[in-house]
Structure formats: structure tokens, C-alpha cells
Design goal:
The radius of gyration is 19 Å and the shape is globular. Strands 7-8-9-6-5-4-3-2-1-10-11-12 form a 12-stranded mixed β-sheet. The chain is built from 10 helices and 12 strands. Helix 1 runs parallel beside helix 2 and helix 4 runs parallel beside helix 6. The protein is α/β, with parallel strands linked by helices.
Length: 335
């Protein structure tokens, strides 16, 4: 059933939804998770059926792009049941794009099926191409598994964008190898700036902060960078490397430069709707989902929340408060 589309108080149509389907992951990246994580009790998580109802409600309200995130979405038990079901909206044309942010560990298993159900592109988080360094930063991950997954994705016809967190003293020396590898593989590449904060502070020391302005400067020594005027409503700024034709993105998570055209909201795996990725205000959608089999209360709750979507985020909000949202999957690694 079609409803009047979601328009926020600043006349921005909300047509992009990011949904986390799990807080669990098979990696423990040092800037994202503690090694021994306390995960949420299962009953707090939305079931796959509830996730379907929630996404379908947003699609009926005009959401055209749905990005599935985590944790690691592909480690959720029976997640392909959800993907297969939600793909009906691609078939009907109600949804323009279904996409995924993943660490790549499970792609060898699932790439073909994801492509078959209509997924066209995915974002894969990858910070290094050196196996020992990969094991160090992910704690539990194996690079060869991810590379096999990327090969499977490519074979299946999925367009891959690599998301790389810029870490001084860790992958600084891999700037050009990463660019060259992405060029050879046909992958797009986006660098993400991460500030050490919250619980990540001990491992990700301030001396590992590598501002993207420095990354760009280093790139400009080898390549001719042309600014691209891309308005995807997202936080990435893009350049083209004239020598290779590659498009490289830069995401500074706390930047303010895209608020004017922000068309996105995100929902956590427990059903909290965040209207702004840089502010704490949120709305509980799990309660209306569970209170009634009818979607009317859910749609009412979504509309009420979107009416509170702010014009933009502030720079002076507490960094401590945002700590749990700054993992790469929960931040602005959209695009």
C-alpha cells in the first residue's frame, strides 16, 4: 500500500534507509569493537520478520535505497531469508536499490545469491592488503577469506566499493598499493577518517589519526586530482585520478558538508530510528512493531520521528556519546 512520502521539516524527501540487522561480527576490528564483546540478548533484536515489516513500511513511504549493515550482516542466522523476501520490492520497482556493507568474510558463500536476487553493488570494509596486518587489526579475520569473497563478488557481477579507514602508522605505506590494487580489480575506493574516541582510545592512539587532508596531499604528489561535483546526498567527497580514471572518495565522519541534502535515516538492530547520523535523538520503532500486527502504529511512529529530523548535526556534541556509533558500519560509510 502506497502512503504519502516521507518529507522532513526542511522539505527533504527521506528516500535512503540504512538498517543494521545484527550487532554481532566475526571480526573484532580494534577501532570498532572490544575483543570480548557483550552482545545484545536475542529478544531485544528485531526478528527477520520484524525487519521485513519495518523495511517494507519505509519502502511504502517512499524509501528507494535500502542499505543493510551490522555488525556483519552476513553472520546473522538465516539472513538470506530476509534478503530473498525484501527483494520482492526490487521486482515490483518500489525499491530502486538494495545494497550491503560487509567485511567480505562471507561473500564466497553468498555473492551469487545476492546478485541473483537483484543486488548490484556492495561496500566492503578493507584496511590493508598485508595478511599479518589484517590479522592484527581485525583480531579474528583472515585476509585470504576476504579476497576470495571479493573474487566471488566480482564473478557474480557485483560492483564493489572498498572502504578503507585511514590509520597513520598502520596503512599509510599502503596508500598507493591500495589505489593500484583497486584499479587492477575495478573496485571503487573510499577513505574514511576516524577519530580515536571512547573505548577505542587505548588501541587507536591519537598518533594514529591520519587526516584525510594529508591523504589527499600524498595522493596529489603522484596523481592529478580533479574534484567531482557528485551530489548523492551523502558525506563522501569524490575526486578523479586523471592518470587512471579512478574515482576516489573521502569521508570525514563528523563533517557538516552534506547536511543540507541529507536524505537518509538509520535503524539499529533493536529498532531504534536515528533521524540524524550525528545526533542522539532517536525513536523506538520496536514497540509499535510488537504492539500490533497492523502497520498503522508503526507508520505513525515513523512519521512522528521524521518530523523531528534536524537540519544538521552539531560539532560540539559529546564525542563520548557518539562512541558506539562510530564503527565503520554505523557511521557514514554509505555512498
Amino acid at each position: 500500500m502506497e502512503h504519502a512520502p516521507l518529507i522532513d521539516p526542511f522539505a527533504r524527501p527521506i528516500d535512503y534507509l540504512r538498517v543494521s540487522v545484527t550487532d554481532r561480527c566475526d571480526f573484532r576490528c580494534t577501532y570498532c569493537m572490544a575483543e570480548h564483546m557483550q552482545f545484545l540478548p536475542k529478544k531485544e533484536l528485531l526478528t527477520l520478520e520484524e525487519l521485513d515489516r519495518l523495511c517494507s513500511a519505509f519502502i511504502s513511504l517512499g524509501v528507494k535505497k535500502l542499505r543493510i549493515t551490522g555488525g556483519e550482516p552476513l553472520v546473522r542466522r538465516d539472513i538470506m531469508t530476509f534478503f530473498r523476501s525484501i527483494a520482492r520490492h526490487l521486482d515490483s520497482g518500489a525499491l530502486r536499490e538494495l545494497t550491503l556493507t560487509t567485511n567480505g568474510s562471507q561473500l564466497a558463500r553468498f555473492a551469487d545469491e545476492l546478485a541473483d536476487l537483484g543486488m548490484k553493488r556492495i561496500n566492503v570494509s578493507l584496511d590493508t592488503l598485508v595478511p599479518e596486518k589484517f590479522a592484527e587489526i581485525t583480531r579474528w579475520g583472515r585476509l585470504d577469506q576476504v579476497l576470495k569473497g571479493l573474487e566471488a563478488a566480482k564473478r557474480a557481477g557485483l560492483k564493489v566499493k572498498i572502504n578503507t579507514v585511514a590509520l597513520k602508522g598502520f596503512n599509510e605505506d599502503e596508500l598507493f598499493p591500495l589505489i593500484d590494487w583497486c584499479a587492477a580489480e575495478g573496485h571503487d575506493l573510499t577513505f574514511i577518517e576516524v577519530m580515536p574516541m571512547g573505548e577505542m582510545g587505548e588501541e587507536l592512539r591519537l598518533d594514529q589519526y591520519w587526516p584525510l587532508s594529508d591523504v589527499r596531499k600524498a595522493m596529489a604528489e603522484r596523481f592529478t586530482l580533479t574534484e567531482l561535483d557528485e551530489t548523492t546526498g551523502g558525506p563522501a567527497r569524490y575526486v578523479r585520478l586523471e592518470e587512471t580514471g579512478q574515482k576516489i572518495g573521502f569521508i570525514t565522519p563528523l563533517t557538516h558538508n552534506f547536511c543540507e541534502s541529507c536524505n537518509r535515516v538509520r535503524v539499529t538492530c533493536t529498532g531504534e530510528l536515528f533521524m540524524c547520523l550525528g545526533q542522539e535523538d532517536n525513536a523506538d520503532l520496536r514497540a509499535p512493531l510488537r504492539a500490533s500486527a497492523d502497520d498503522a502504529p508503526l507508520i505513525e511512529a515513523i512519521r512522528a520521528a521524521i518530523a523531528r529530523k534536524p537540519k544538521g548535526h552539531d560539532f560540539d556534541y559529546s564525542r563520548q556519546k557518539v562512541k558506539g556509533q562510530m564503527s565503520r558500519h554505523m557511521s557514514h560509510t554509505g555512498g
